[in-house]
Design brief:
Blueprint (H helix, E strand, L loop, with lengths): L1 H15 L6 H12 L7 H5 L1 H11 L1 H10 L4 H30 L5 H20 L14 H11 L9 H11 L4 H26 L9 H29 L2 H19 L3
Helix pairs in contact: 1-2, 1-11, 2-7, 4-10, 4-11, 6-8, 6-10, 7-9, 7-12, 8-9, 9-10, 10-11
């Protein structure tokens, strides 16, 4: 039974990590209702590496091209700088707020459910706004715009908000096209997620429980496979359909969670 739960949680992590629906919110709520919780959140933290690895593998060609061209291509160089500078607000605020995030916010299922619903309405509203994109490609995003998006990303430190959701909404409001917003969210997720996981493991190293390594392996592989599929699919979908569907999904999940919590589940 534990192996099945690990498989499900890993799949949920991989599917939701790069969608604007809050992978952390889904993982924590599902773990709560299934009665699954690892010491020091070892399982929940480590399986995120599976999603990161999937993104790096699927986008390896794109990343290689950008890094290869950066020394002599101003647009590629600007994209690298934009991603690194956009990452800094989350790095600084994340370190300062880490104790509150882990001991208070992550342990409040009701807050997560409410944030899922509120974020859903925001996503639907922004998706339906008549916005004229000024930046069609990620390489076109100015440094200052990227930094603003980086600050907006910090809202995702409240579980249930969604890192990708905050990044995408911020990018759309700053004049980035729907496809480029999702793509920039992918780029920004690499240093943000790797930094967050590394720091989280460091801060909770005394509480980490590696006794159920086989469950972590199952969750890791499941997250890797499902994330690889989502990354390949997402850009094409949002280019055609936008983000409203994900907003409605958030509202449904958050509402069901509130009903379950009110019933004492």
């Amino acid at each position: 039974m534990q192996a099945l739960i690990a498989l499900i949680l890993g799949a949920v992590e991989g599917i939701t990590e790069f969608l604007p629906v809050s992978s952390t919110g889904h993982l924590l709520l599902l773990g709560h209702f299934l009665g699954f919780e690892s010491a020091g959140r070892t399982f929940e933290v480590v399986i995120q590496l599976g999603a990161i690895l999937a993104l790096l593998l699927v986008w390896s060609g794109r990343l290689f091209t950008i890094l290869r061209d950066a020394p002599h291509d101003p647009r590629a160089r600007r994209l690298v700088a934009a991603v690194l500078l956009a990452f800094l607000p989350a790095a600084v605020i994340g370190v300062i707020a880490h104790p509150i995030i882990k001991t208070v916010l992550f342990e409040t299922p009701m807050l997560i459910a409410v944030m899922l619903i509120l974020g859903g309405f925001v996503l639907i509203y922004v998706d339906k706004m008549t916005l004229t994109p000024r930046y069609q490609e990620t390489e076109d995003i100015p440094i200052l715009t990227a930094i603003v998006i980086g600050f907006v990303q910090c809202l995702a430190m409240i579980p249930g908000t969604s890192r990708s959701g905050a990044t995408i909404v911020g990018a759309l409001l700053m004049g980035v096209s729907k496809r480029a917003a999702a793509e920039f969210s992918f780029f920004l997720s690499m240093p943000t997620m790797m930094g967050a996981v590394a720091y989280d493991i460091y801060k909770t190293r005394d509480m980490l429980d590696w006794s159920a390594t086989w469950l972590i392996v199952i969750g890791f592989v499941s997250a890797f496979v499902s994330a690889a599929l989502v990354v390949r699919w997402l850009l094409g979908f949002v280019s055609r359909r936008g983000y409203a569907l994900f907003g409605w999904w958030r509202i449904v999940v958050g509402t069901l969670a509130l009903i379950g919590l009110s019933l004492g589940a």
